[in-house]
Amino acid sequence: xxxxxxxxxxxxxxxxxxxxxxxxxxxxxxxxxxxxxxxxxxxxxxxxxxxxxxxxxxxxxxxxxxxxxxxxxxxxxxxxxxxxxxxxxxxxxxxxxxxxxxxxxxxxxxxxxxxxxxxxxxxxxxxxxxxxxxxxxxxxxxxxxxxxxxxxxxxxxxxxxxxxxxxxxxxxxxxxxxxxxxxxxxxxxxxxxxxxxxx
Length: 199
Hints:
Blueprint: E1 2-6, H1 11-21, E2 26-30, H2 46-61, E3 65-74, H3 95-105, E4 113-123, E5 132-142, E6 158-160, E7 165-166, H4 172-178, H5 180-197
Helix pairs in contact: 1-5, 4-5
């Protein structure tokens, strides 16, 4: 197995990414297990934040690291909550508070187009000059109220017209096939499959 440190303490992300990569011979090690501290997310873009997190995990572990930075972008809000998705309603982080704030901001608005965006950065070591960067998007709209208990984050309010369901109602297997994170992981496997198998 190819061992990689995952620069995340989000149990939802850890589960989704581990589940996806395991069949490809990749074992993810949660950075928290190694006592690696979380970094801040000081940048204004997903890719910069992911790179900071990946380099931090690689530096502290001495192993290759993978970081994901993702969030929800709502068109009519100029792309917000964007990189602030996890803390949209402030501290402490709360999915339900974030969802309530979003629904409040969109109250009475007809344009509810939105997309989830995910960028993943893989570094072979902390000073890797050529990190692998992949991305994925998942388009939908914001429902008028939360529906569904599955998933995490904004899933209960992220409505998918093709399914007539929110991401919070969607079967987990289907979500792991079509989501922004699934698309980014698919691109990651495409880029790194040969490299991982050579080791």
